[in-house]
Design goal:
The chain is mainly α and about 170 residues long. It contains eight helices and no strands. The protein is elongated, with a radius of gyration of 18 Å. It starts with a helix and ends with a helix.
């Protein structure tokens, strides 16, 4: 049983976990995963390093959880955009979601690109699947707007557009 699993949560503040994730992701972005220590994460979150283990089993779990939660929220917003009956509104919604996500989680794309190797294999596979689902949402929206577009052309346009946005956010 992990410390977090055995804890009842009665003494934990609900925002502490979110503070840990935010502090860790900012540090992973600024310093890199391997150069960031648990004590540093704790200090940035306003708690002791050992107290982190009440919420997370390891630094890798913090990284995986931060990435997974951010990507999951983005994919859920994508699904809501795709539900719009208007092809133009669906694509506009995806663009707005992506840009807002880059602003809100400015660290996410850089951390995923630079620190993916630090994830456990199962987490890396999940991230790969999430990225494919993200691309497929964009390709589907683009096909709804331009049904005559070749599948390969649509995929190329999506990748090019997303990478332009990511490059701006990354640098």
């Amino acid at each position: 049983m992990t410390p977090a699993a055995g804890h009842t949560g009665a003494k934990r503040r609900p925002d502490r976990r979110d503070r840990i994730l935010a502090a860790a992701m900012d540090l992973f972005h600024a310093k890199g995963y391997h150069a960031t220590g648990m004590d540093e994460i704790g200090a940035a979150a306003g708690i002791t390093g050992p107290a982190l283990y009440r919420h997370f089993e390891s630094k890798e779990q913090i990284l995986a959880t931060g990435i997974r939660e951010s990507l999951t929220a983005g994919l859920e917003r994508n699904a809501a955009c795709l539900a719009d009956p208007s092809p133009r509104a669906a694509l506009d919604g995806l663009v707005a979601n992506f840009v807002e996500g880059l602003i809100a989680d400015r660290w996410l794309s850089a951390v995923i690109m630079r620190e993916r190797h630090a994830l456990a294999p199962e987490s890396r596979r999940w991230v790969d699947q999430a990225e494919r689902a993200h691309i497929e949402a964009w390709v589907a929206a683009l096909h709804r707007l331009r049904p005559g577009l070749d599948q390969h052309e649509a995929r190329l346009m999506v990748h090019a557009g997303l990478w332009m946005c990511l490059c701006v956010a990354y640098y």
